[in-house]
Amino acid sequence: MRRVIDDRFELVNRLGSGGMGMVWRAHDLALHRDVALKEVRPPDPALAENDPESARLLRERVLREARALARLDHPGVVTVHHIVDGGDGTYPWIVMELVPGASLAERLAEGTLTPVEAAGLGRGVLSALRAAHAAGILHRDVKPANVLLRADGSPVLTDFGIAAIRESTSLTATGSIIGSPDYMAPERIRGAEGDPSSDLWSLGMMLYVAVEGRHPLRKATTLATLAAVLDEEIPPPRQAGPLTPVLDALLTRDTAARPGPEELDRMLASVSEPAPAPGPGRAAPQDAVPPRQDPPTRQDAAPPGYAQAGPTTVLPTAPVRRPPVTAPPRPRPATLGTQEIRRRVRRGRAVAFTTALAGTALTGVLVWSLMPDSDTGAAGSAPSASDRAPDRASGGPSPAEEKEGRQKATAPAKNLLTPSAARSVIAELKPVMGGTRVTSFSLFDVHASAEAPVAKNKALYDVFTYRDGKATRERAGGTLMSGAKSVDLEKFNWDALPGLIRRADKELGVDEPTSHYVDIDPASPFDDYQPTLSVYVSDEYGGAYLRADINGKVLKKYPRNG
């Protein structure tokens, strides 16, 4: 059915979705040109009905941001052509320049950048950020999926949909953090806003990923990633060469110690435009680091159109279904063991509580809202005095019971990454979910997680977990994004799993893997939107993965040093 917005913009096809809406390719019937049309809307469509004041503030914020962006004239910032505003009770559409080419996320899926290339790209993104910051706009979600690459390779910063006008922070919903946890600056997690240096941290993290091919702090869960960003030491880069001092300067948690934009541009220029080779009779400086010489692998044919936004987390005001993955998942570090997860959870909790006492209650809301109701008896938690010395008079456990408990606690968990175990997990989930169709599914060595449409309303979804032989409905999820796909887990050839894991161990360059896990994508945009199964292999330095179709045929490999 033909759909025209504002009697002028005919929707052609959907290009991608993000935390604050959906992007379409559209045809401008008045000017006879293709444009990108962003349908701005909250993650929860019920916002207008349940919280009209927040909906009004969101609409006001979006309009102010769009108008501010429309005043920017910079080649590195996507151009805003027009705003379609239907008035109160509606959400606006933003008409933007359609940038042909791939996103940086798509480019990095094919291989890393050299330090010289990354520095040049960094200067382009920095120039765009400086223009936005000068206009009072903070981006707040700088990441590879939000950087488009023109035909000449120059970057264009896009998706300011979750940006904030510096002077209107009150328009940000109270109690929520919007952004991508693995690229979010630590001060933003703690609730501080309004500092342009937070965008520079994100830029630094993006450049780290660009040259290293891995994210240094990404963990198996959002909470663990947030905790790592807050206080975990960042592993020194191994392939950054002359870019290393830039990364070290940007990825410091002391905001005052980060370089300013002018200094940062000079640092990047010294890498992207190295001094000429010394002439006869002149020795090269002893500390000079030669740039990497091997050329990067580039995409042979980048799909045209607006780059599709990567996953964006909105925490925690309303349950939100992440949009369908629109860039290949990047390799994630090793899956944490139970004790390590508990340790990180407690550490994240302590950080959140301390920050809340300091006056930034936002972080407390963020972290505590994600906590399980109780840690009592959890593996790795410190025993209380009563745990150490039970009161026999009050009915404490007998020595035999204590021994049995210790034996259960130390018994090795069943490995779920086998065909029979995977089918057992699905069989346990089936009656709890009301079927075997899912919109998201991850299988780890000792547990699994799934998101599945609600039987009575396919526009909604619930979150489920499997652990210790038991499947449970963890919580209500929220509203699915329009067009979200589901897939039947029973359709996958689980008998192919052992062979896929062996190939991952052998061919992905992770010499001594410490963990594996499987991730199901119901509709991979890089494989004609067919369902895929990805096998991740990791060690303490990061990981790599391969992607296969529903029958177990390998479609693409993303080795560690790809």
From TrEMBL:
PROSITE patterns: PROTEIN_KINASE_ATP, PROTEIN_KINASE_DOM, PROTEIN_KINASE_ST. ATP binds at residue 38. Signal peptide: none annotated. The keyword Zinc-finger does not apply. CDD domains: STKc_PknB_like (cd14014). Residues 271-343, 375-416 are annotated as: Disordered. Residues 311-320 have a biased composition (Low complexity). The keyword Phosphoprotein does not apply. GO terms for molecular function: ATP binding; protein serine/threonine kinase activity. Residues 321-332 have a biased composition (Pro residues). It comes from the Bacteria. This is non-specific serine/threonine protein kinase. It comes from Streptomyces atratus.
